[in-house]
């Protein structure tokens, strides 16, 4: 952790994206995988203005913007095996694939859901064969919808229908989906029903596919994989709780819960500052350590390390954002960090970088473009557990 502490302390803002004509909250970030070359890396950002922006990773110059979306966007992901394909899920019941080499507003491929589907989460598995999206609850139904994603690289503009659905395992909005980093058949889903479910999609039916159900006792906001060989899952909740489980212990007498914190804000000690919310998590392979990213409403970013005996502050990045940070991508290969916030800014942090202009942008005051799907952090302290 000391090395991570040093890395974090050395991070400085290298670049800021130019503010666009229509400022928007930056809700999700992904980076193209280095398939062909390290130099042509791109950054995709999902915005509250119903658009996807694609930037050059080194300069943060805007390359593309896809804005023809009829509904709210929920997530953005690059394909793992092709660095020019980026996916987005939309509340209109589609997952779209965009080819960032083409100057067109037309999606390269559209994955259609069923008529009542409103997608609020999605992911694509590590070999780009399967896409899974999670729906809002409509009537009594909530679905995990699956598609065959093969053929995305040939760019023929086609519409694909689902392979099928899982409909029994959650009974409320499915807010987060994450495929296993190296096992293409494993996927974990989290819901406002409090459940975190791990599935093996190679099995014939949903009952057999459900490997494990963990209960967070709260509404799940974020899920991920961690640990050696990624045999652990963790989640964060909308009331800033944290749960961490060891799936490898399922067939043993050992308890699978590694840590359960009802409110992380009460458990992390930060001198002369506070923790207002959690953004997400990241497992650091080299350090074999799970980290949480949190922050303050004024834009400070806190890095928190997780251990079975509790949570500890590793360090803080300040003077970057002027409002709540919504999204991040920590690139462990070059130790750079990308962050996006409610101040409409995309920042690239690098070790020892020197920013040319140090003028801090003012906060984005108008939130009218942000609809109810955007995660709301409770800014009042009344809801805190005393």
UniProtKB/TrEMBL annotation:
WD repeats: 66-101, 167-209, 318-350
Compositional bias segments (type: Basic residues): 372-386
Pfam families: WD40 (PF00400)
Region (Disordered): 364-386
Family matches, as Gene3D superfamilies: YVTN repeat-like/Quinoprotein amine dehydrogenase
Keywords (A to Z) from UniProt: Repeat, WD repeat
Coiled coil: none
Annotated TM spans: none
Protein name, entry field: WD repeat-containing protein 89
Taxonomic classification: Eukaryota, Metazoa, Chordata, Craniata, Vertebrata
